[in-house]
Amino acid sequence: MSAEQPLAPGIFVTGTDTGVGKTLVAAALARHLRDQGLKVGVMKPAETGVDDPTREGSDAALLRWAADCRAPGEDVAPLRLRRPLAPSIAAEKEKVFVDFGALVESCRRLRRTHDFVIVEGAGGLMVPLAGGLLMADLARAMELPLLVVCRPHLGTINHTLLTVFSAQTMNLPVHGFLINGMPHEPDEAMAEAPHALASLASTDLLGVLDRVEDADERRKVEALARQIPALPTYRTLRRNLGWPEKS
Ligand SMILES: Nc1ncnc2c1ncn2[C@@H]1O[C@H](COP(=O)(O)OP(=O)(O)O)[C@@H](O)[C@H]1O
Ligand SMILES: [Mg+2]
User: Fold this and answer.
1) Annotated catalytic residue within 44, 95, 220, 246
2) What is the whole-number distance in angstroms between the Cα of residue 117 and the centre of ligand 2?
């Protein structure tokens, strides 16, 4: 076997559901690491609901912008599908072959050429990707630990524990969870969620990001990126994600 370039560390960002803020959190992390001087690779291995599949979808484009990532489109966003459905279902309807091995190889290429790689899954862990393979299988094949993004709303304790415990049952390493979109005036359920989850989830709470009021996605990313180093959990986030120090 030939000696290969070592693989950079990275994280697979999953969520308790679609729409919980995976893209914004992944992009804010990417922006923060870029601001630390790191060369950050981003990847959206499967994006559905893409208006024009000849071009990158909005998630991939936002991640690429946030990270200032110049990697080729075939690695950053290899699978783009028009229908807003789970990837395996959209692919079947659009007669597109999902090359699971190629998605994993793209991730490895990014890890050989960047300091840290952030991959955003589609939907949650149990979303079908190709045949019987789920998003969880992709995270496993990519050999990346999970970061679980969750909502602050009532119901999040159940959804977050379901996600974390399922991952652990499948022997997928979970490096923590992050509550996204906490309003300035949380209701009682939202106010209790961080403490309850921190004590129940058997993985670390890596942060609570505020809800930011802005119509522009890029400005939201910038605002969230500014919140990251101010988190009281920042040291834990840093340690668990394990991004390299840049002098
Ligand atoms: N912290 C936040 N503050 C304000 N809006 C947010 C926040 N997080 C996510 N959103 C908004 O919620 C929607 C879904 O977020 P997104 O990151 O696309 O979720 P996902 O990637 O999990 O589907 C987007 O319109 C996004 O701008
Ligand atoms: Mg997304």
Assistant:
1) 44
2) 16
Domain that holds residue 110: 10-186+215-241
In a domain, 160, yes or no: yes
**What are the respective helix, strand and coil percentages of the chain, to the nearest 5?**
45, 20, 35
202 within some domain: no
**Has residue 78 been placed in a domain?**
yes
Q: How many domains does the chain have?
A: 1
**12, 24, 50, 159, best to mutate for ligand 1 pocket (most atoms within 8 Å of CB):** 24
- Coil vs helix vs strand at 118: strand
C-beta of 207 in contact with ligand 1 (< 6 A):
no
Note whether residue 37 is domain-resident. yes
Neighbours of 111 (CB within 10 A): 23
Nearest to 211 by CA among 187, 235, 188, 185: 185
Protein residue whose Cα sits closest to atom 10 of ligand 1: 21
At 42, which CATH number? 3.40.50.300
Cβ of residue 183 lying under 6 Å from some atom of ligand 1 = no
Tens digits of residue pLDDT in 91-143: 999 999 999 999 999 999 999 999 999 999 999 999 999 999 999 999 999 99
Q: Is the pTM of this model over 0.70?
A: yes
